[in-house]
Amino acid sequence: MNLTKFLTTIVLTLGITGVAAAQEMQAPAQGDQVEQLDQLLDLDENQQEEIRGLLDEAERQLTPKEEEAQALQARLGDYVGPDYDENLIREDASRLGDLTGEITAETVLLQSRIESVFTEEQRQQLDEAIAQQQQQMEDMQNQMQQQGGQPAQPAQ
Length: 156
Hints:
This protein has 156 residues and is mostly helical. 79% of the residues lie in helices and 0% in strands. It has one domain. It has helices spanning 3-13, 19-24, 30-41, 45-78, 86-117, 120-148. The longest helix is centred in the middle third of the chain and has 34 residues, at 45-78. It is flat and about 60 Å long. 13% of the residues are buried.
């Protein structure tokens, strides 16, 4: 699965978009995520319960890491100034990089575990929904570029 498809899958199915987006907006509640998947893929009860369990476990693992990453980002912002401590900045930036890698790995693993719950038919449905959403996003981007790219009329 290529990166664009993977990221679109995450956005479409889970609302998980990475550390930066997680800081700015909350992912949909777990029930909402499972309901969205159910509406899209017609999950059976066992699939819904398994996905809820996977989401619960991921939340337990990701929340403390996301909170630490947010704190590190805030602290790094506080370090900006004429009397900076390069070693402290590098130490915190390194830890932030480690956390980002851990969060990314957990997110990829979560997505893979969730997809393993789906039947082949459900995966195909998901792929089709992703392709449709990607096309809509491309269409919107093209439309915005066309609107923004038109030259302004000169003032007379």
